[in-house]
Specification:
97% helix; 59 residues; rod-shaped
């Protein structure tokens, strides 16, 4: 009986570690997406700004 409870506790610990690992991976992925989207927005805004400047120069 005692070994069974120890085994169960180990399973719970392992499961907890898996959940923590999955959560950390999700956070890293979200952070990566946020950084990339920010870079993309900055690049698009920069290109739009260049387009605006060209338009203003034409008028």
């Amino acid at each position: 009986m005692k070994s069974k409870s120890c085994y169960k506790r180990g399973d719970v610990l392992l499961e907890g570690m898996l959940w923590i690992g999955m959560g950390a991976l999700l956070l890293v992925a979200l952070a990566q997406i946020l950084v990339e989207s920010k870079e993309w927005f900055r690049r698009v805004a920069h290109e739009e700004g260049i387009e605006m400047e060209r338009m203003e120069m034409h008028y």
